């Protein structure tokens, strides 16, 4: 990768690898990703125009949801391709440097952190598990009108207790499931529950977790998650992955520098 022709967009850092990336792989802005080596590390980069990724236009673009979504898809496409051939350490969306020298300076400064995290993530992938429960249906109206106000209140209390017990059972299932999956993973992260209005997914999100699992154990992990789907018919269990280990890279995240 030369220092000419625009800014350097960095997708990930990894160790040198022999396998070739997909021949037709394109990255952000349609540019094919390339490899920039520095000591025992490789930065996966592509060239992007200053008109989109210099500080001021980038700030404006980050307010454009359509542009942001397209950029995120291209970024994720490169990370997914890397995950099939090596263990990448993904950097944040829109991590941009002025030139190759800026990328190498970043790698030099963060080299020890990068190597430490890559050692921990080597041969491992991230699996995501979400658990959703739909609100219980309201109880049917009694066929016979309550004989008194006391009977009405008693029925309301009974219905409220039943509602609360169903939610407690769902929350307990989520807690037990997370403990069970965490025992089969090398590490785990609990993320905040998703907002149904923002995600567009129906039901209350009771579990939103990520699990770091070795590739060798991934088939067994997936089978374990699949078996849980029959244990609670009123609860939906969603499995995603395998992903690059986004949730387990915190010590080595780098900010773009110009």
Explain this structure to me?
The chain is an alpha+beta fold. Helix content is 40%, strand content 23%. The chain has helices at residues 50-53, 55-61, 65-83, 100-121, 149-184, 196-199, 218-228; strands at 7-14, 34-38, 41-48, 89-90, 96-97, 124-133, 187-190, 204-214, 235-243. The strands form two sheets. Strands 1, 2, 3, 4 and 5 form a five-stranded antiparallel β-sheet that branches. Strands 7-8-6-9 form a four-stranded antiparallel β-sheet, with helices on one face. β2 (34-38) and β3 form a beta hairpin. The radius of gyration is 24 Å and the shape is elongated. Residues 252-258 have low confidence and may be disordered.
Q: In a nutshell, what does this entry contain?
A:
The chain is of the alpha+beta class and 258 residues long. Helices cover 40% and strands 23% of the residues.
If you average the pLDDT, what whole number results? 85
Q: Note the run of SSEs as H and E.
A: EEEHHHEEHEHEHEHE
Number of helices: 7
Helix content range:
25-40%
Low-confidence stretches: 252-258
Strand content: 15-25%
- CA-based gyration radius: 24 Å
Count the beta strands: 9
Shape descriptor reads elongated
The major sheet is characterized as: 5 strands, antiparallel
The secondary-structure class comes to alpha+beta
Report how far apart the termini are. Answer: 17 Å
């Amino acid at each position: 990768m030369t220092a000419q022709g625009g800014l350097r967009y960095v997708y990930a850092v990894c160790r040198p690898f022999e396998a070739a990336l997909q021949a037709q792989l394109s990255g952000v802005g349609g540019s094919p990703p390339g490899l920039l080596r520095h000591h025992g590390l490789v930065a996966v980069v592509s060239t992007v125009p200053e008109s989109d990724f210099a500080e001021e236009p980038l700030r404006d673009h980050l307010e454009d949801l359509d542009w942001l979504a397209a950029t995120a898809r291209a970024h994720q496409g490169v990370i997914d391709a890397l995950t099939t051939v090596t263990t990448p350490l993904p950097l944040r969306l829109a991590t941009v440097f002025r030139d190759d020298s800026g990328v190498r300076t970043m790698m030099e400064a963060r080299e020890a952190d990068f190597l430490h995290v890559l050692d921990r993530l080597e041969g491992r992938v991230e699996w995501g598990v979400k658990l959703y429960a739909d609100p219980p249906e309201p109880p049917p109206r009694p066929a016979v009108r309550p004989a008194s106000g006391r009977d009405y209140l008693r029925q309301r209390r009974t219905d409220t207790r039943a509602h609360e017990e169903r939610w407690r059972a769902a929350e307990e299932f989520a807690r037990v499931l997370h403990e069970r999956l965490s025992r089969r993973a090398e590490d785990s992260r609990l993320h905040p529950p998703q907002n149904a209005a923002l995600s567009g997914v129906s039901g209350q999100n009771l579990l939103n977790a990520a699990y770091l699992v070795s590739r060798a154990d991934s088939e067994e992990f997936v089978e374990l998650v699949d078996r849980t789907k029959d244990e609670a018919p009123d609860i939906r269990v969603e499995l995603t992955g395998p992903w690059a280990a986004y949730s387990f890279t915190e010590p080595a995240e780098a900010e773009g520098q110009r």
